[in-house]
């Protein structure tokens, strides 16, 4: 079971050299105010996990293939589990929009995480076009149903609501807009932890963490700066 405190998930995406990543981990390793989960670049994860035993590391994605085999370049969820990784981001909008992932592939990846006892952090979110069309709720329900519909009742997953129009744009939805989506998910009777992601920084995090029943935040760009991340952790 996950601890009850709010979590901060840092998503470093395809950034930082190993030396820079190591330096940030060094700064963070004495911090214990919130549950910190860091999604580091895959080539660094085993090294950093062995070096920083008190930090929680997270994969940024797992392969659609689960069993070992001839799949050059792929990273099975089994790899991550074999050295104690307990979380993976799945279905980030960058994977959907830049690398052709859809609800069906994401569902398979979720199943691969679950079968390896890795808690998936499932990202969902609508584009600006869909938000403006007014059909964003239907869109999000469809994403959820197709990705996790019949799985969710018996496993623990984290859902990250990350509107695509808020990622890397410095635009964040209002507290009411986020609450509306959280209520929507809860009304589906999904027993899950809900986090928000998209342009989170040390200035807006406090207000966001006050949203009713929010379990935490997913932070991209701001998490690449140790000072900024420490401010968010201590907010
Ligand atoms: P951002 O990214 O904080 O840089 O907007 C968030 C994310 O993509 O998860």
**Measured distance between first and last alpha carbons:** 24 Å
Q: Kindly state the number of beta strands.
A: 8
Query: What is the tally of helical segments?
Result: 10
What oligomeric state best describes the polypeptide chains here? single chain
Key descriptive features of the protein:
8 strands, 235 residues, globular, alpha/beta, binds 2-phosphoglycolic acid
How would you describe the overall organization of this protein?
The protein is an alpha/beta fold and 235 residues long. The protein is built from ten helices and eight strands. An eight-stranded parallel β-barrel has the order 1-2-3-4-5-6-7-8, surrounded by five helices. Helix 8 (175-187) links the parallel strand 6 and strand 7. Helix 5 (103-115) crosses helix 7 (136-148). The longest helix has 13 residues, at 103-115. The two termini are 24 Å apart. Residues 11, 162, 167-168, 197-200, 218-222 line the site of 2-phosphoglycolic acid.
Layout: helices, strands, pairs:
Blueprint: E1 7-11, H1 18-28, E2 35-39, H2 45-51, E3 56-59, H3 77-82, E4 87-90, H4 93-98, H5 103-115, E5 119-124, H6 128-133, H7 136-148, E6 158-161, H8 175-187, E7 193-197, H9 205-209, E8 216-219, H10 226-233
Parallel strand pairs: 1-2, 1-8, 2-3, 3-4, 4-5, 5-6, 6-7, 7-8
The structure holds 2-phosphoglycolic acid.
Could you write a compact summary of the structure shown?
The protein has 235 residues and is an alpha/beta fold. The chain has helices spanning 18-28, 45-51, 77-82, 93-98, 103-115, 128-133, 136-148, 175-187, 205-209, 226-233; strands at residues 7-11, 35-39, 56-59, 87-90, 119-124, 158-161, 193-197, 216-219.
């Amino acid at each position: 079971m996950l601890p009850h405190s709010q979590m901060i998930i840092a998503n470093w995406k395809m950034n930082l050299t190993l030396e820079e990543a190591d330096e940030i981990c060094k700064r963070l390793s004495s911090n214990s105010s919130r549950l910190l989960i860091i999604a580091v670049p895959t080539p660094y994860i085993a090294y950093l996990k062995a070096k920083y035993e008190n930090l929680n590391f997270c994969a940024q994605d797992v392969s659609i293939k689960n069993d070992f085999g001839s799949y050059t370049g792929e990273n099975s969820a089994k790899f991550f589990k074999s050295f104690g990784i307990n979380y993976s981001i799945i279905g980030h909008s960058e994977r959907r929009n830049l690398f052709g992932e859809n609800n069906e592939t994401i569902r398979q990846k979720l199943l691969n995480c679950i079968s390896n006892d890795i808690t998936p952090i499932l990202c969902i979110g609508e584009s600006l076009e869909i938000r403006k069309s007014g059909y964003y709720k239907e869109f999000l329900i469809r994403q959820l149903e197709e990705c996790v519909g019949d799985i969710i009742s018996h496993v623990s997953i984290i859902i990250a609501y990350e509107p695509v129009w808020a990622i890397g744009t410095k635009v964040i939805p209002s507290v009411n807009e986020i609450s509306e989506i959280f209520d929507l998910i809860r009304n589906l009777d999904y027993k899950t932890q809900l986090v928000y992601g998209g342009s989170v920084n040390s200035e807006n995090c406090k207000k966001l963490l006050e949203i009713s029943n929010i379990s935490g935040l997913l932070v991209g760009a701001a998490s690449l700066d140790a000072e900024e991340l420490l401010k968010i952790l201590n907010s």
